[in-house]
VOC family protein
Amino acid sequence: MSLRPVMITCDSIDPLPLGRWWAEQTGGEVIAENDGWFSVVQLSSGPRLAFQKVADPTPGKNRVHLDLEADGDLDDEAARLVASGAERLDEQTMGDFRWIVMADPDGNVFCISGAH
């Protein structure tokens, strides 16, 4: 018996625009919006992303986050994300591997990097 990830769900105080933002950033498509309570984004591959309405956002740093691989130049991708409403939080390197820590418009932390 085994499990496979089919959806990664984030809490949000306003899930519909956040789901649309993530669809735009990843080239995905919003496939469901449930009366303002839930938004599901179908990606071209991998699990779906979902955003569910909560009364209060989770305080502090989220314990689960997305790691996304940029197709092109990492700094150009970070600038594009910032121009669309994300915030650049930090940059890290480990040997030759570099990644940038970002936050989406709702404050959810995610990382972008070059090829793994």
